[in-house]
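Researcher: Watch the backbone:
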Amino acid sequence: MDQISSFITNYMPFLLNADRYKVVETMETAANGGDSVVVFVSDGLHFRFIKERDQLFLDLRPPTSQKEKDWYSIDLVYRLLTGERLGTSILSPEYAEFVRTRLLDIERKFGPDEWPQTEQDLRGIQRKRSKEMFG
């Protein structure tokens, strides 16, 4: 959990605004050297940070959904909004800066008015990424 906390403190401190974001789930296991999960929620977006095998990942989900399938990795969201592929889903300072600077755009895409189209677009990007990775 320390790795997630450190990353958030250094690169995404806006999530520490208790008036806007709440931690609703934390989990830590001894598996793979200490995997962990932290979920932040706001009225506009849900953030799930995952530490797995000493690598960090970030998934986003609309606040209106509780479905597991509605979590989308940051690389897919980045590609949706920029049209660019960074080639990795591992959370980086570049992805953190993207979230910080494009948060309102992301929240709009994950909001109730745009979510149906956003979901279709993200699923298409997922399929495209799978073909790029596995042929």
Q: What stands out?
A: The mean pLDDT is 94. Residues 2-134 form one domain. The two ends are 35 Å apart (CA to CA). Strands lie at 22-28, 36-41, 46-52, 55-61, 72-73.
